[in-house]
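Reopening this ticket.

The earlier resolution said the output was attached, but the attachment link was broken on my side. Pasting everything inline this time so it's all in one place.
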Amino acid sequence: MGKIFNVNADCHPDLHYMVDLKDRLGKIKKMVDAGQYFTINRARQYGKTTTLLALAEYLQKDYIVVSLDFQLFSAGTFKTENTFSLSFAKAFAKAWKEYNTSCPDVISQKLELLNTAVFEKKEDFGLQELFEHLCGLCRDSKSPVVLMIDETDSAADSPVFLDFLSQLRGYYIQRRRNPIFQSVILAGVYDIKNLKHRFVKNSERTYNSPWNIAADFLIDMNFSKEEIAGMLIQYEADYHTGMDIELIASLLYDYTSGYPFLVSKICKLIDEHVAESENAPDKSTAWTKTGFLESVSLLLTEKNTLFESLANKLTDYPELRNMLYSMLFTGKTIPYTPLNPAISIGEMFGFIKPQNDMIVIANRIFETLLYNLFLSDELLDNKMYDAALNDKNQFIQNGHLNMRMVLEKFVEHFDDLYGDQDQTFYEDDGRRYFLLYLRPIINGTGNYYIETQTRNKERTDIIVDYRGEQFVIELKLWRGNSYHTRGETQLLDYLDYYHLDKGYMLSFNFNKKKQIGVQEIILDGKILVEAVV
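Inline output:
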């Protein structure tokens, strides 16, 4: 059986198409060589487990690597110091032998002592005794020992785990006198560095972090365009589709910003679903821009664990939901302030990222997903959506989307329903109502995203993909003729960028004497369809 694109659990280079991790592993090894303790905290399905497994192999030449997974520990493990210490001792001894098959007699004896404590279920076996054993193993080991623990989120709420981190910190500080791990690497979604340990001092409750010794992990785990191209080269060597690797790699990066799960998922959809479908009878026709856009549409309509997790976080953290809603629908720009709780949560779960000292949605896929989620709350009771449902069949002609007709009908319905509303209504809701009108028309076949460079309170560019065709629609607030002319010039620039000959402009005009409607003009050899409501 040949390789596949994998989106479940960890990836193996002999089984799956993967990006080359050597550069990333080399950078992490430098942190290990420097004796740093750190946390790889990234959002879900970001390749953390794959990275740790690859790192364990990468380090084995120079280090004794002990790799644990807290997900394999039962819930009861973290209830008491004794149960945790015994479980950790058992897992540690087993992992040492698995990753390091030949052990000197002195190490074998010390591992046996650990197992003896486990088998006897010593009731007085706690963290202090556990670390005495660990310290002894590190002292007598022929090579420095690296401890890696995956899925630390499983223990994040446990006071015992905080005590365990405190022990690591204490031994780290004293490691010149008492040999301990060369490096400790924890992996999870939550930033363990910010967990606080409560203790009593001078009759007052105070807090400190038991993991404040950790170095910052600044290594980029997103796939670069070049790394994505390398993975596609592997695939092309097997199937000879004739794909334009540079084009497909660029599209994958532009839509996902290199989020590992999203890159692999889109590739998997192209390979296993788009190929041999009605629109793409073979792999050669699937690995095209049209096939790529079809896979994005499939992705945005599926239910997967990553999307479900993101949706749940909007319910769990109302402040995060409010911030994202303001960014998307009112064009609100928010400075990047990592100490802000909503920003910290959004960044930790992968919703947002810093860019030019501001926060932006992490990638186009997430942005469209968020728009769809927010709009879905209004679909049943929104008259613009109902109007689009009634109109939608007339907009598709010979398989092509008639965007001019979409604008004409939108202007007509919007004027009937909201023509007498005031300026505040338009500023906050105009864009939202256009997306509500657009969604049922392209739903299931096309998709849209917002051009982040132009989203603000006065202007938004919407890019619509429909069966391989792209439409650029500029949404803007009317600020007079000179501003309108500048908007036309900006739209022409975007048409050049997307290699299009026709563009669309939808202006929300507050002037009571305005003339609503749609007209078509020609500028610099390009057609501009301009609608005013």
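Reporter confirms the inline version is readable. The chain has a mean pLDDT of 88. Residues 382-533 form one domain.
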